[in-house]
Amino acid sequence: QVQLVESGGGLVQAGGSLRLSCAASGRTFSRYAMGWFRQAPGKERDFVATINWSGDNTYYGDSVKGRFTIARDNAENTVYLQMNSLKPDDTAVYYCAAAIGRNLATLPRLYDLWGQGTQVTVSS
């Protein structure tokens, strides 16, 4: 069973950057599609980005296209989310997730495993 632990969140000013990491335990990490989601207080969990098992195919939510980049290092069992040009609207708890047997996935219900989340706060 894979376990996911996010890190890298924090407080940043608008226009700044952060890189989130999601470390996965377990030997089968490379078999999973991975995704990042976010949830702001009182709102639903929104799709941010997803990457396939080999890392050569990605897909982004409209609100982050051109600003965020998802990447993975299967040798290190880690998936990353580089966030640039951050805006106050990006403030949320960010979760990484793993989807077994899928290529790319944008819906939370398609993911099998979730991390505990990391807070990102963007000040104006």
Radius of gyration: 13 Å
The residue fraction in helices comes out at under 10%
Structural class: mainly beta
Number of strands: 11
Shape: globular
Strand content: over 45%
What is the arithmetic mean of pLDDT? 94
Which regions have little confidence, pLDDT < 50, spanning 5+ residues?
none
Order of helices and strands: EEEEEEEEEEE
Major beta sheet summary: 7 strands, mixed
End-to-end gap: 40 Å
Topology:
Blueprint (H helix, E strand, L loop, with lengths): L3 E4 L2 E4 L4 E7 L7 E8 L6 E6 L6 E3 L7 E6 L4 E6 L8 E9 L12 E2 L3 E6 L1
Parallel strand pairs: 2-11
Antiparallel strand pairs: 1-3, 3-8, 4-5, 4-9, 5-6, 7-8, 9-10, 9-11
List keywords for this structure.
124 residues, globular, 49% strand, mainly beta, seven-stranded mixed β-sheet
Overview of this structure, please?
The structure is a single chain. The protein is mainly β. About 0% of the residues lie in helices and about 50% in strands. It has no helices and eleven strands. The strands form two sheets. Strands 2, 4, 5, 6, 9, 10 and 11 form a seven-stranded mixed sheet that branches. A hairpin with a 4-residue loop joins β7 (about 70-75) and β8.
